[in-house]
Records
---
Amino acid sequence: GQQLNQSPQSMFIQEGEDVSMNCTSSSIFNTWLWYKQDPGEGPVLLIALYKAGELTSNGRLTAQFGITRKDSFLNISASIPSDVGIYFCAGQGRSFGNEKLTFGTGTRLTIIP
Amino acid sequence: DAGVTQSPTHLIKTRGQQVTLRCSPKSGHDTVSWYQQALGQGPQFIFQYYEEEERQRGNFPDRFSGHQFPNYSSELNVNALLLGDSALYLCASSNGLIRYEQYFGPGTRLTVT
């Protein structure tokens, strides 16, 4: 099945550093969502974006909906140990009957002591 | 406010057998989507149920079927299990009349031997 391209695939950072990751698609989406998944658990919704160009924050997390509607970006400021995990982007058509999420390949975040 | 719940947590089946997984949506949600997540990959959309009918389907064979009950809970059935069906099966709920955001349960880990 289709998966969106996420980069980087993995990141090794020190506590306190800022993190940036992005997600690109060949298709247009009307909604972009960012999830975090810990091992053996389900994805947890972090941020939802509904409008091209939109910039939304949730605490230390900031995400942007790309102008072309084919990409999105997630930034984490001042990383802490609980930020460790896998981050997934997901695109959605967001029309009645077309609500499936298409996920990215994931970015694994590791904090080096 | 109870979130999405899934049962069982883990399941081990033999190739050729059939399995049923269960999901209860978040309070106030009427739509249930199922995803398959293979190890190291992002979730892949299987299908979505709304008003007790399959509304959208991903690229999965007919061996995968589902059902939604009047109380909005849902089941995923997989027949003639293959080794490749081993994965984490995730259920997500939403309410399109409010927002299109999907909230995930903890998943069921299916192992086919």
Note: Chain A has a mean pLDDT of 94.
---
Amino acid sequence: ETGVTQTPRHLVMGMTNKKSLKCEQHLGHNAMYWYKQSAKKPLELMFVYSLEERVENNSVPSRFSPECPNSSHLFLHLHTLQPEDSALYLCASSQARATYNEQFFGPGTRLTVL
Amino acid sequence: AQSVAQPEDQVNVAEGNPLTVKCTYSVSGNPYLFWYVQYPNRGLQFLLKYITGDNLVKGSYGFEAEFNKSQTSFHLKKPSALVSDSALYFCAVRLVESGGSYIPTFGRGTSLIVHP
């Protein structure tokens, strides 16, 4: 496979469930990102992992927990979510050392919280 | 600090007509500028970027964008719109200078609708 892949593509979960989103990049990049995209709202950066650092958006609730075991894989662990967390969750990667590099996005996971 | 404004939530254009999607930016230095497109139920896809040099940048699918430093703008253009160009378009900016974050700032997005 090439590019950035995300699984699952669709997820429906109850508020008491625990689930994880997975992202994998096959581009040799050294930075990976999680974004939340809600209807009629701006793209929201949630977390970034690179060789040098982890960056968090302080407004992201603790019920979202990222994990980056290596430069090719990124997870978003979900627990006790709320209905307002329903959104499209996008993973992206880039080569972080040069700021002129564009990001490559996965197709997203459409999350519905009941 | 860096920011991006896309002043139009939606742009409507007839097929075959030229289209423009506007973007203005604010950075405390020189910018790298990007355009992405998002088709329904898909992730964002890179279209083109301005790094340096020629102010007119050509990208995928016949799109181009013009960097205007004095007006701090980077408008996306296409001479003849197609119905298949209908999508959500995002402008993004990064600061060039050393120490600038590799994390881009995105605009809110502009929905382009091309009517047959």
Note: DSSP finds no helices and eleven strands in chain A.
---
Amino acid sequence: GEDVEQSLFLSVREGDSSVINCTYTDSSSTYLYWYKQEPGAGLQLLTYIFSNMDMKQDQRLTVLLNKKDKHLSLRIADTQTGDSAIYFCAEINTGTASKLTFGTGTRLQVTL
Amino acid sequence: DTGVSQDPRHKITKRGQNVTFRCDPISEHNRLYWYRQTLGQGPEFLTYFQNEAQLEKSRLLSDRFSAERPKGSFSTLEIQRTEQGDSAMYLCASSPGEGATYNEQFFGPGTRLTVL
């Protein structure tokens, strides 16, 4: 079955870059996503990458996908205090189901 | 506001009681999903609807759980004879369905259930 894993916690200084990592097991994943969850708020889609892409850049966000190693990363440039949140990677295999499989989430703490 | 809405936002109940949650998806979204999120975990899929048809149910959805989407618009999730292990955040999401570019699911704010 599908499994998605993330490290639990990351602390960075304001202005530095953050890199959040994720590994997944389903080689049939079609899309991979990064969601952000702030306290008391719902999940917000930050960005996504199609499985035939290696990289995607969207303003301060860069997503890297290594299909061979089934490794996904999210880089946030110039990290701000407002970026403090829990970040979830998720994958979907549209061939068999439309459900998202989420990782356990990485809590990003941005310090001054 | 045209996002996904959920009601209530918080529910406290005693063990053994029945509870029902409502989700209103984004207008004209064909697909509606229910997820459950416990503390420190990512959301876990429960079930989803394509219009009014319930197409998939997770093994997490025990016999005490039932979901409906009678007219293909709003959905309800009922939990009968609640147990303390049902305490969680219940999230609803919707998506345009077939033909959507990247299958984005738009999430509501969730209903936090506490079973005493």
Note: The radius of gyration of chain A is 14 Å.
---
Amino acid sequence: QVQLLESGPGLVKPSETLALTCTVSGGSISDNSHYWAWIRQPPGKGLEWIGNVFHSGKTFYNTSLKSRVSIAVDMSRNQFSLKIMSVTATDTAVYYCARQPSSFWFDPWGQGTPVTVSS
Amino acid sequence: DIQMTQSPSSLSASVGDRVTITCRASQGIDNYLAWYQQKPGKAPKLLIYAASTLQSGVPSRFSGSGSGTDFTLTISSLQPEDVATYYCQKYTSVSYIFGQGTKLEIK
């Protein structure tokens, strides 16, 4: 059974770079049937897709974040990562990673990791 | 961009009630729609994909229907453990948009 676990700093200063890692267990990130995605949820608000990556390194990003976001895969560690540059308070959210069958729905999800942007 | 609008935004019902949540797409999306359940402090959980296919392990009281622009999630007999926020999500054209959510409570 595939499980995902997010990790990274819980506090980031404004204008700096947010960096998170998702570790996949119980399955291979090089699986040809799945993409790997990041989604976030600001406090008390709804869900926003950030972007996704295939094991080849091919990426797709939300157009509203595209200029600041980078997602990469590390097959040797069975991990994928998220970087958001030049963060502001509006990037404060719980960040989730998830598997995406054939770039469709999201299942399963990681437990989520809260990130606060504050000085 | 296609917008996804859920209604109602919140709902209160009694145990045993039949509950229906609606999701409307601003343009047709065939059946490229999923439903999720999110309990407080937890990650969302996939309930239904392809508009009407029940994810393995999800109780059969949950069902989905619709195609094109109008979709529904139905709980046939509400249980206390169904208290949660429910989200629809469309997946077309490498664009994944969620509805704003419907918060379901027990009366």
Note: The mean pLDDT of chain A is 96.
